[in-house]
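INFO  loader      accepted 1 record
INFO  loader      residues=184
INFO  predictor   begin
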Amino acid sequence: MERVRLPDGSEVVLRPVVPQDRALLVAAWERFGDESRYRRFMVAKDHLSERELEYLTNVDHVDHEAICAIDATTGDGVGVARYLRDRQRPETAEAAVAVVDAWQGRGVGGLLLRRLCGRARENGIHTFTASLLTENRSMRRLFDRLGPVTVREFDGPTMEIDVELPLDDARTALRSAATGHVRS
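INFO  predictor   done
INFO  writer      dumping tokens
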């Protein structure tokens, strides 16, 4: 568990998702707008099924990792980042990030993605893949900040990308220092 102060002064707690987070996930789902849901799942979706809730909360933290961000003041879930290792390419994993509407643009997504990247490297993953709507520029920017992005497939409204993960935290720290985002 890690407590982090965001640039706007608010604080979140980052920690691995556990099966007991089911209610937290359902409550957070209710705070996602229709557009946010569509951008994350690329289909209109008004609820999560029991099977989806099981999948989203029952992770092994090696081949399937999920890290959540919780509002340090209220205890509400505000975001989650996850990866799922590709069985055909074990050094590759599909990654996704979702942040509830009220917390978007505050740095939660980038924070979650960087922590997810660290866990992926610890587990032998060197590349993230992602399926994105081509109009989802904010998600593309998140991945661009992580490392070199290659567009593997471009099909009208969607794209498939690969992102080479940074080799170590020193590279991330240097990038943060260069952009003035250094924390003590």
